[in-house]
Amino acid sequence: MTLTTRRQQQRAAFTLIELLVVIAIIAILVSLLMAAVQRVRVLGPQTENASRISQISQAIGTCKGELKLTYIPSQQVGSSAAATGGGFQLKATYGGSEPELNVLLQAFPNLDTSNTGLPNVTLDSNQTLCFFLTGGGVTNFTGFSNNPRKPFTPSAGGGEIRKGPWFQGNPNKLFGPGPGGQPWLVDVYGVPYAYFASVDAKLNNYGTQTFSPGGGAGTASPYFSSAGPPARMMNEGGFQIISAGRDKVFGAGGMLPAIGSPGGEDNQSNFSQYLLGGRLD
Predict the structure, then answer these.
(1) Which SS3 state, helix, strand or coil, does residue 70 take?
(2) Spatial separation of the C-alpha atoms in residues 100 and 124, rounded to whole Å
(3) Which H/E stretch holds residue 229?
(4) 1 versus 167: which is more confidently predicted?
(5) Where are the beta strands (DSSP E) in the chain?
(6) Collapsing DSSP states into helix, strand and coil, what is residue 228?
């Protein structure tokens, strides 16, 4: 065997340094791939959640227009100081003095108040929004009947023409069970959205509303952009929809955190393209 042949045989194998270099390159590629996968896992639900919030916002506008409502209540109707957690009273029979009846008569002027077909139940703000946008559990998410006296009659199936629903989709993904057996609108993480509306769509009229769905999600309250005086609310003449975000815990609300602030909340909303306290990227 010649010296040249022996050297060729020795070069047929990788050296230790070459193996280490290859392993290092593979490790870098794997880490880059894992970072990309994690980014997709985070941004995918965030993008879907933002789309869902946008759909709900559009549905609110359409619903208010078609039912001739100035706003969809998110607090105790007729109260100058907002009650926490909503408090919209559905009743089988209204006596004529209930403030909720004024809202219902805006939407359904010929409602038979002596036998509405509704259950006797109190809705929180999210459930109230779900009720008006879809009919909720009352009419099986099929909107409302065109029967002027019995708008809450469940759908009989077939070619019946109804009002709404203005927000619809897979019930297993978009809705969740809430208190009193009435449904919630839930985000992509399974947490009910916080919904706050300015009373009669008046500027700065959010009051002291809060939303506490339980289950460790914390308590949400409206956001404002400046302390004032007077304080300037986000969407001050409209409504706020807030998702608890990926950690499934609501932020404290109040002054809107600066974009990109360290340790910011990851909530999503209808009034900011960014996470509340961090960038949506």
Answers:
(1) coil
(2) 13
(3) none
(4) 167
(5) 88-90, 121-123, 144-145, 162-163, 175-177, 183-185, 194-197, 223-226, 232-233, 239-243, 254-255, 268-269
(6) coil
Distance CA 40, CA 78 (A): 46
Rounded-to-integer distance, Cα 41 and Cα 46, Å: 9
What's the rounded Cα separation, in Å, for the pair 44 and 246? Answer: 11
Separation of CA 261 from chain center: 23
Closest by CA position to 195, among listed 206, 205, 204: 206
Q: How far is CA 128 from the centre of its chain?
A: 13
Whether residue 229 has a cis bond before it, omega within 30° of 0: yes
Q: Are 146 and 111 in contact (CB under 8 A)?
A: no
pLDDT band (50, 70, 90) for residue 19: confident
DSSP state of 234: T
* Separation of CA 184 from chain center: 10
Q: Is the pTM of this model over 0.70?
A: yes
Q: Which of 219, 223, 205 is nearest to 275 (CA)?
A: 223
Dihedral through CA 149, CA 151, CA 155, CA 161, nearest 10? 90
227-257: burial string, b at 16+ Cβ within 10 Å, e else? eeeeeebbbbebbbbbbbbbebbbbebeebb
Secondary structure, 3-state, 240-264 = EEEECCCCCCCCCCEECCCCCCCCC
Strand 254-255 to 223-226 pairing: parallel
Selection from 33, 43, 38 nearest residue 281 by Cα: 43
Mention every residue, 6+ apart, whose C-beta is less than 8 A from residue 277. 251, 257, 258, 259, 261, 263, 264, 265, 266, 267
* Banded model confidence at residue 164, pLDDT cuts 50, 70, 90: very high
